[in-house]
Amino acid sequence: KSVPMVFQSYSSYEWMTVIENVALPLIIKGVPKKEAEEKAMEMVRFVGLEPHATKYAKSSLLSGGQLQRVSIARCLASGSKVFFLDEATGALDIKTKREVQDLILDISHNKGIETTIINVTHNVEEALYISDKIIVLAPNPCSIVEIMDIDYGNTARGRWVLETEKYHGYEKKLNNLLDEVCK
């Protein structure tokens, strides 16, 4: 009944372990604790945090990227068909930002995971890298300026797309749209 979200600022419960944080939406739904923890562990493994499953989810023990992975795993464990990212990579260093972006791509192109990810970002490169569709909004009143379909072909997406003519064409179009919106 709710839509899970990954915020720019870390949203894990620091007094709970990684596995407890990820299992929380299942526990709230009434899933038995053992079953919830098993499902949560699947998601913890998927996001690459298995060695940290029993650590408390706080910044003194986990990096920012690891804390964002906890939030992503919690979204996945919820079973929601949609989840939001609100500037989820904004506070991360460039290496970690790229790792989390690649994880988002893994999720969105994983045939075993049926979810739609709505990513709110001001980062043009990120939007063009991880998105299949970009919706450009204008403020006051909020309105849709354009919907751009992003298609780099049928091959698995990787950092290589950032060097393609298609990417640069999309980048030029998007920057022009943003310039118009921001006038």
Overall description:
The protein has 183 residues and is an alpha/beta fold. 43% of the residues lie in helices and 14% in strands. A 3-stranded parallel beta sheet has the order 1-2-3, covered by helices on one side. It has a two-stranded antiparallel sheet with strand order 4-5. Helix 1 runs parallel beside helix 3 (64-78), helix 2 (33-46) packs across helix 3 (64-78) and helix 5 packs across helix 6 (165-181). The termini are far apart. The mean pLDDT is 91.
Structure, briefly:
This protein is an alpha/beta fold.
Largest sheet strand order: 1-2-3
Fraction of residues in β-strands? 5-15%
**What is the distance, rounded to the nearest whole angstrom, between the alpha carbons of the first and last residues?**
39 Å
Q: What is Rg?
A: 17 Å
Summarize model confidence as the mean pLDDT.
Answer: 91
Multimerization state: single chain
Low-confidence stretches: none
- The best one-word shape is elongated
Q: Summarize the amount of helix as a percent range.
A: 40-55%
